[in-house]
Design brief:
Elements lengths: L2 H26 L2 H16 L5 H24 L9 H28 L4 H19 L1 H8 L6
Helix pairs in contact: 1-6, 2-3, 2-5, 4-5
């Protein structure tokens, strides 16, 4: 094997690695899964405004939508990788921030005397989750490449 052959093989390996990471990032922020997750989040969070039997149905439907979407998302992933500890901590922090946003909007709507305050807060939180999924794509890419958030 010549030096040129070795360099060509290394370049091919790096090219395939880049393709793999691009496929992972593209799949992680694909539009259908983001929308299904946002709709599930909206259904669960807005269920606080519904009466008793409908509240339970909305929670079950929202959780079913979110968990079903997550299952399909994981099964159809072209690339699988383990989540790092810092990545899991980042996602947990993002979930806490969305929860804080939900309760801040709900409490603010209560003080303003708005009807269906949880539905309003759920809509704001679902839209914020969709916007965050696209805005934080470089962070997900940084985690996928192994060098943390950018």
């Amino acid at each position: 094997m010549t030096a040129y052959d070795a360099q060509t093989a290394l370049d091919a390996i790096q090219h395939r690695q880049e393709q793999t990471l691009d496929a992972y990032v593209r799949h992680a922020s694909s539009r259908p899964y983001v929308i299904v997750s946002a709709l599930g989040l909206f259904a669960v969070c807005s269920s606080f405004d519904l009466p008793s039997p409908w509240s339970t149905a909305a929670v079950l439907a929202g959780n079913g939508m979110a968990l079903g979407g997550l299952y399909v998302h994981q099964r159809r992933a072209p690339v699988r990788r383990k989540t790092s500890g810092s990545e899991a901590l980042f996602y947990a922090g993002l979930a806490v921030a969305l929860l804080a946003l939900f309760w801040t909007v709900a409490i603010g709507a209560h003080f303003l005397g708005l009807p269906a305050r949880h539905t309003l807060a759920a809509a704001v939180t679902a839209v914020a989750a969709v916007v965050a999924s696209y805005a934080l794509r470089p962070v997900v890419e940084g985690f996928a490449r192994g060098n943390g958030p950018r």
